[in-house]
Write a structure and sequence with these properties.
It is a single chain. The protein is built from 15 helices and no strands. With about 350 residues, it is mostly helical. The N and C termini lie far apart (about 55 Å).
Length: about 350
Amino acid sequence: MAETAKRAAIATLVVGAIVVLALAFWKLRLVLALLFLAFIFAAAMRPTIEALKRRGIPRGVGLLLHYLVLLGLIAAFLWLVVPRALTQVDNAIGARSELGQEAQQSTGIRHEILAGLQRRLQDIPSGSQLIDPAVSITLTVFEIGLGIFFTLASAAYWIFERDRAEDLVCSLLPRPKRKRVRDTWNLIDAKLGAYVRGQALLITAVAVVLSLIFWALGLPYWLLLGAFAGLVEIIPVVGPIAAGALAIGVGLTQSVHIAVLAGLAVLAVRLLEDYLVIPRVLGDAVGLTPLVVLFSVTACGILFGGFAVILAIPLAAVAGTLINVIVRDQDPAEEEVPAVLFSAKDGETG
């Protein structure tokens, strides 16, 4: 009886500890998501930082150069794109906006589409709202800034400390398993880095190409639509559909002909991306089938909210790699990862 009670007590403690840890992880899910995002950013930057280090530039300087380039790109975007986009939003939701007039004058399905489009645009802050100091300094802005700082700081920390963490984990394992763990770790790092760099290229290319096409078609708010189409590239499956629907809706303010051309432009860019660009740029970087991607995006969105959708593919890539190595007994050292600007070997440190 004493032995049985002892085992029951131990089992209860183990189950209780698992429940407590699960609840703690659930409460800290946003922090963990930001931490994982930081690891992804670090994986994307690591090859260039290591390449600069081999040329005599310290890691700290290389990291600072990356952040300065990122800051410069953001500043250029805010200077060149945001003012024009805000002007287009103000024109779209103003009292005498062309979109509002078209919505009032149209009927049937066209009226429903235009009215719905205008309601969505009403949720976007106008230029006057952003300028108003009483609105700009809010708790939400502070939280977003804190999240960005935490992510960038954690990414910087991980650049310097990843090797130590890898050594610590491997030191706790039997010697025969250490190489396999290191190879798996490096493979996951290479996949995440390739995915982020590839996505950054695709987002930029889609935004620029579609903006130019929309401008050539005479589509209103062409810059806003192109930037939106590029941004939603980070949302698998749903993003391109939303971009096409929005382009068609705005095109209906001009004519059915323009709407059809805008929808075909989005479809053509998407097909070109799927069959030519992605195979050459990303290749099989994450090794996931479309069904797995769709399931991952849906599951992450339902369980963790909309923000986690952008982490769905990286999480699925990590899980898929671990399954291949642990369950299917694949050798991680033999699996190749697309370079995407830089070879995966550039990110490996000795």
